[in-house]
Design a protein that fits this description.
Blueprint (H helix, E strand, L loop, with lengths): L8 H4 L3 H11 L4 H8 L3 H15 L4 H12 L11
C-alpha cells in the first residue's frame, strides 16, 4: 500500500496514521467523524492530532490546515500571497 500524499509528510516526518488523521480533519470532519471513517477510537484520533501539533509546532486544527496549504501552494517570485 502506497503511503498517502500530504504536504506535511516529509518536512515533519509524519507517520501514515498521522497523515490519515490530518486528511480527515482537513476535509472538515470532527474527531468523532474521523474516528468512524478510519475505524479507530476517537481517543486514537485525538492522540494522532496531538502528535501532529507537536511535530508541526501549531496548537490548533485550523493552523495545521493553514500550514499544509501554504506548503502545498506554489509561490510566484515577486507576487505576495494574501493571508
Amino acid at each position: 500500500m502506497r503511503p498517502p500524499d500530504c504536504p506535511l509528510r516529509w518536512p515533519f516526518e509524519l507517520t501514515p496514521a498521522e497523515i490519515r488523521v490530518f486528511e480527515q480533519i482537513s476535509a472538515g470532519r470532527t474527531t468523532k467523524e474521523a474516528a468512524l471513517a478510519l475505524g479507530v477510537a476517537q481517543s486514537t484520533v485525538r492522540t494522532h492530532l496531538l502528535r501532529l501539533f507537536e511535530k508541526t509546532g501549531v496548537n490548533r486544527q485550523a493552523d495545521l490546515i493553514r500550514m499544509a496549504h501554504s506548503l502545498a501552494s506554489p509561490t510566484v517570485p515577486g507576487v505576495q500571497r494574501k493571508a
